[in-house]
Amino acid sequence: MKYVALVLKNLTRSRRRTILTIFSIAVSLFIFSALVSLPAVANQVLADSASSERIVCHNKAGLAYAMPEAYKQRIAATPHVVAVTPESWFGGVYHEVSDQFPNLAVDPDTAEAMWPDWGVSKEAWKKFETLRTACLVGPGTMKRFHLHVGQQIILRGTMYPLNLTLDIVGVMRGGSAPPNFLIFRRDYLEEAAGRPGLVDVYWVRVDSSVDVPRVITALDREFANSSAETRSESETAFIGSFMDNFRTFFRLAEILGFIVVLTIGLVAANTAAMSIRERRAEIAVMRSIGFPSGTILGLLLSESLIIGLAGGIIGCGAAFIVLKIFTVGAVALGPLSDIRMPPSILAETLVVAALIGLASAWVPARAAARQNIVDALRMVA
Would you state the torsion angle of the CA atoms of residues 155, 132, 160, 230, taken in this order, to the nearest 10 degrees? Predict the structure, then answer.
């Protein structure tokens, strides 16, 4: 601790160089942490659904093709199935076309049993089951449009030629709930659309996650050779199919992040070498009055470490704020709409910042601390 004042004084000796170095490290680690956060969030989404007891059953031809409503009873009769919830995509807009967010209709009588982990209160579920125009909204959509429970909104149809008036009865606050979704009653949509009797997706919940493969096989066998054959998959696989659209982007983001860090590491090493080279005479004098070479090495590395960590903290903080703001308008990313910086990325970025600080100064600092005193003084004389 007795050398802290000396380290701080050396850092403020050339304020412009110190500030610019911190700023350059901050910018690089801002880019690094923001880019690496995307695949980290994707992996976390998949990890959260890894032990899910839910299955998604959709048309084998693709999500754009519907299935008969009569499939519900046959799915419910399958062994190990405890709940079946049909889902129909509405795709309405709130005000303008730019105000799109995922909104879909589900059966109210089985929604609570299907998604008990969505953080919806018992009172909200009860209102959802009793009020025909009820809807539940994710916190991201509530924040984006400044909505509140009890408010009445109108969704303008895009796929359906109709508008729906909905009453917000609750918020989906659970960790696994989609933050930007809105769900409402499918019977209300069926009535308004003239009861087409078609379903886009069947959500199926089984009694145990170990029974998921067995139920998947049974469901697809049940509807084989029918007019609407099915493809059933676990919730993890279903979400992963959406993530596959971003895999190349994730890989590119990680590569770019590491390239940026490597580049700024080389720049920081050059800056540290220049700074230490300018102080050769000072270092030689310190050696001559009794400073051990290990102490001098520690002082030089401490200066560089402080610069690296300062840049890392600024870069992480800026990335956290930017990602927080970007989340509000990121509904187009679907499962990745809740973009954020995971704690693991924060810790990883700070470790990278420390490594940049230490690695960039290690070689020149070690050489300067071990250089012969007479030779160092003669070179600057």
Answer: 120
Query: E strands of the chain, at which residues?
Result: 54-59, 67-68, 81-89, 103-106, 134-137, 152-156, 163-171, 182-185, 198-199, 201-206, 230-234
Q: What pLDDT, in 10s, does the model give residues 325-353?
A: 765 445 445 555 556 677 788 888 899 99
Is 291 domain-assigned? yes
Do 291 and 349 lie in one domain? The reply is: yes
The Cα 117–Cα 103 span in angstroms is 19
SS3 287: helix
Which domain, by its residues, includes 224? 61-228
| Whether residues 323 and 178 fall in one domain | no
Token couple for 370: 């071990």
| 284 strand-pairing partners | none
Whether 304 and 54 have beta carbons less than 8 Å apart is answered as no
237-296 pLDDT tens trace? 887 776 666 677 777 877 888 888 888 888 888 888 888 877 777 777 777 777 788 888
pTM over 0.90? The answer is no
In-domain check, residue 171: yes
80: left (phi over 0), alpha (psi -120 to 50) or beta: left
**And the tokens for 225?**
């050779």
Question: Is residue 53 classed as helix, strand or coil in its secondary structure?
Answer: coil
Residue 51 lies in a domain: no
Tokens of 52: 């899910």
Q: Of the residues 186, 202, 228, which one is the last residue of a structural domain?
A: 228
Task: Please give the tally of structural domains in the chain.
Answer: 2
Q: Is the dihedral of CA 47, 50, 55, 58 positive or negative?
A: positive
Residue tagged 């600080």 (tokens)? 357
